Amino acid sequence: MPKRVLLGLFLACGLSAPALAQEPKTGGVINAVIQPEPPGLMLAMVQNGPVQMVSGNIFEGLLRYSPKLEPLPELAESWSVSEDAKTYTFKLKKGVTWHDGKPFTAADVLFSIEMLKQTHARARTNLAQVDKIETPDEHTVVFTLKQPFGPFLGIFEVGSMPMVPKHLYDGTDWKTNPYNNAPIGTGPFMFKEWQKGSFIRLVKNPNYHEKGKPYLDEVYWQIIPDAAARSVAYETGKVDVLPGGSVENFDVPRLSKLKDTCVTGAGWEFFSPLAWLWLNNRHGPLADKRVRQAIMYAIDRDFAKDVIWNGLGKVATGPSASTIKYYTDDVKKYPYDPAKAKALLKEAGYKGEKIRLLPLAYGETWQRWGEAVKQNLQDVGMTIETIATDVAGGNQKISEWDYDIAFTYLYQYGDPALGVGRNYISSNIAKGQVFNNVEGYSNPEIDKLFAEGAVATPDSKRKEIYEKAQKILVEDVPVAWMLELQFPTIMRCKVKNLITTGIGVNDGFKDAWLDK
Amino acid sequence: MLSFVAQRVLKGVIVLLAIVVLNFFLIRLAPGDPAIVMAGEAGASDQVFVKQLREKFGLDKPLPEQLFIYVKGVVTLDLGFSFRQQAPVAKLIGERLPATLLLTLTAFAISLTLGILFGTFAARFAGTFLDTAITVFALIFYAMPIFWVALMGILLFSVTMDWLPSFGYETVGANLTGLAHSVDVAKHLIMPAMTLGLFFMATYTRMTRASMLEVKRLDFVKTARAKGLSDAVIQRRHVLRNALLPVVTLAGVHSGTLIGGAVITETVFAWPGIGRLMYDALLQRDYNLLLGVFVICSAMVLTFNLITDLVYRLVDPRIEYAA
Q1: Residue-wise DSSP of A340-405
Q2: Which sign does the torsion angle of CA A215, A216, A221, A222 carry?
Q3: A470/chain B closest Cα distance in angstroms
């Protein structure tokens, strides 16, 4: 049986989740891997992946999101939108307390937003359309927008907008606040202990506002820096959960076959990580659209998926992942076609000029992918020089536009206005920064479409706008889209209900239980 | 002797300051900007955010001013603040230093003890099968990369035989105390300490063997033999003692290299020491933390070298503490 089919079966096995029908059992401890070690646990101050993964248990947002990205209640029990789509009213859940026993109120929401505007770049962008925020009573928060903002209900998950205790942060120096390393949230688990370099220990919040939850007594996040050692830790039974991306992809099939092991690709719908090659549109051969199109034809993306990523993921069709809103596959297609690539290169007058390729220094899988792409491009006659850097060095080169082709992958946050447009609009061309429009693509029509799409109503209008934008972008190839990545979570089958939302492990272990 | 130590400490402080200044510039020569690393990790990057981060790191100030602030801090024993980890550098290093000291000193003891022992046997039985076997054994561990020995150790002793834990400093969640805790830590220590120790053992074995064979040929050994001393006494009291000087020198030099080796060992075995702290700080361009670890490592190397000089005197009383 081909490896990818076998893996598909494992994934399907994991997704079938027969545990859903079972009555949750209380008690028990889960050991999960976290890598790299979080720099801190104060989600409002630092927002990298590991921080979100641990702190998603301690802090909460106003909403959660289903795998289909529909909003679900968390600290807000209900919400309503005015007819003109400019006023959003959230009713907060009553009886919620911080881990230190103080009540959670609308004042905390107001303070959190003011703080996040200064400490959380993505939150600041997300809140740009907010005109004012009012708190008519302790359990009501009213957001009034300058104009309708389509994705507004999609910005309230814990990683995008964590709630911060006003009584502990107001009037203090946030960056040196002692609670940054011993955080107080409203979440299902409380911070207990952090042995730096070894583990982070969270314990059950006995006063959690959802009765009966969480089911587990404790969660240990074990810090194991080496990917091979993380695999061994799972194999030898020292850890129960390997969140997506914890081990090298080539280890996934082997670990999947271990006894009592379940694997799921679910829990990444909100992030929808999409891998692509930045193509420096500014100068040299890549300034010519035909060369960029040739690159799309020259790269065997099915090979990358099947061999390098062990069958995980999906070949990308364009700037939007298929899991986010307004995706369309009714766009120009770029199958693997070296002959067509060669013809396009010839037509563009490419004469073998040297192209610098920056692989992503995220481990072995990415290095191998870099080699495969180099070979594909050389096969159609391109001269490729690989530039080896670490992550920091690579980011600097990209941010200073000192590259020709560079690997990356970015999250899409469920809506084109939040996670897609930022990479293609010309107002986001700014030297010295990463993850904006570093390719230097500029198209007034695209600028206009993304500007309109964010504020358009009704939904059908947004759909129309974003579908048009996708068609234009796929024709222009400002970047070369590769794969919709899948980072499978590997766990013991006795761990039930670990992933219940579109945010996956980052949403905390509040629904998880152990079938002992 | 006291004035010798005082002078060496003074010289050490000057060397340390020179190292601080040199490192300050060296790490800034490496491509990569801490603000961009952090902005990248946050999954967002706008001008305001990057500017804020630069201000937080103090990176918006001119380089000489940054250096002045840093050196002033070091002189007053303030190693600065790691904004990435949101904690004082001294606290971060303090949390990790005991684990590194335990690992490196154990590895150091293993390498030195086994190295001298094997080297002595090899010299005593030079040209025999035992000599060849010891040399080959030592060279195998010297030739193999540390990470490879570490991974093979994990595969054999953790995965296949299930004798030793594969990672960490202690059994997480076991809440052991007293002797049980010490035994638990010792079990976790065996593989990383042996991995690191066996690598350095090879050089001590080779050095002891070569040095002993050289000393053996000297006239005073012949005299001792002519005096009718037993072979064991000659080997121990005359040959080994005189042969140890180059080994002690090498041990002093190795004190720095050991910490370098600890970076890899600590990473593979998830040992929570400063080697890993340094590695993470380097990848994240956490300048203050990186400089802080360099300062501590340099101070450790200088201390080891001072100890080496003092040990010289013990090994060979003819050496005087020249100012």
Answers
A1: HHHHHHHHHT----EEEEE---S-HHHHHHHHHHHHHHHHTT-EEEE----HHHHHHHHHTT--SE
A2: negative
A3: 22
Average per-residue pLDDT in chain A?
91
Nearest to A90 by CA among A69, A108, A67, A68: A108
DSSP annotation string for B296-317: HHHHHHHHHHHHHHHHHHHH-T
| CA dihedral (B245, B251, B252, B254) positive or negative | positive
DSSP string, B231-251: HHHIIIIIIIHHHHHHHHHHH
* pLDDT in the model for residue B2: 74
Please compute the mean of the pLDDT values over residues A231-254 and round it to a whole number: 91
B169·A48 Cβ contact <8 A? no
A419 to chain B, closest Cα gap in Å: 10
Closest CA to A484 of A268, A307, A251: A268
Instruction: Determine how β-strand A383-386 pairs with β-strand A241-242.
Output: unpaired
Q: How far apart are CA A485 and CA A9, in angstroms?
A: 18
pTM equals 0.85
- A122 and B44 in contact by Cβ < 8 A? yes
pLDDT, tens digit, for every residue of A301-312?
999 999 999 888
Judged by DSSP in three states, A19 sits in helix
Q: What is the DSSP string of A76-122?
A: EEEEEE-TTS-EEEEEEPTT-B-TTSPBP-HHHHHHHHHHHHHH-HH
Cβ neighbours around B230 below 10 Å, total: 10
Task: Answer yes or no: is pLDDT of B189 > 80.
Answer: yes
- What's the mean per-residue pLDDT of chain B? 85
Cross-chain residue pair A229–B87, CB shorter than 8 Å: no
Torsion angles phi and psi, residue A97, rounded to 5: -125, 155
Please give the Cα distance from A486 to A476 (Å, whole number).
Answer: 26
Structure tokens at B268: 């593979």
DSSP per-residue letters across A409-435: EE--TTSHHHHTGGGT-GGG--TT-SS
- In angstroms, the Cα distances linking A392 to A417, B29, B281 are 28, 13, 11
What is the spatial distance between Cα A192 and Cα A203, in angstroms, rounded to a whole number?
6
| Residue B129 to chain A, least CA–CA distance (Å) | 38
Confidence of residue B280 (pLDDT cuts 50, 70, 90): confident
Q: Which residue has the tokens 């050490």?
A: B12
Of A442, A468, A471, A466, which Cα lies nearest the Cα of A453?
A: A466
Q: A8 pLDDT exceeds 70?
A: no
> A494 or B281: whose pLDDT is higher?
A494
Find chain B residues with C-beta within 8 A of A31's C-beta.
172-173
Of the listed ranges A225-229, A253-257, A441-445, the one predicted with least confidence: A225-229
| A108, A112, A134, A151, A413 from A143: Cα distances, Å | 14, 14, 7, 14, 21
Provide, as residue numbers in chain B, all residues whose Cβ is less than 8 Å from the Cβ of A47: 41-44
Cβ separation B44–A176 shorter than 8 A: no
Say yes or no to pLDDT of B31 above 80: no
Buried b (16+ CB within 10 A) or exposed e, A469-488: bbebbbebbbbbbbbbbbbb
Of A370, A365, A371, residue with least CA distance to A488: A365
Is A12's pLDDT higher than 60?
A: no
Q: Give the pLDDT confidence of B215-236 residue by residue, as tens digits.
A: 888 888 888 888 888 888 888 8
Q: If you average pLDDT over residues B19-31, what whole number do you get?
A: 86
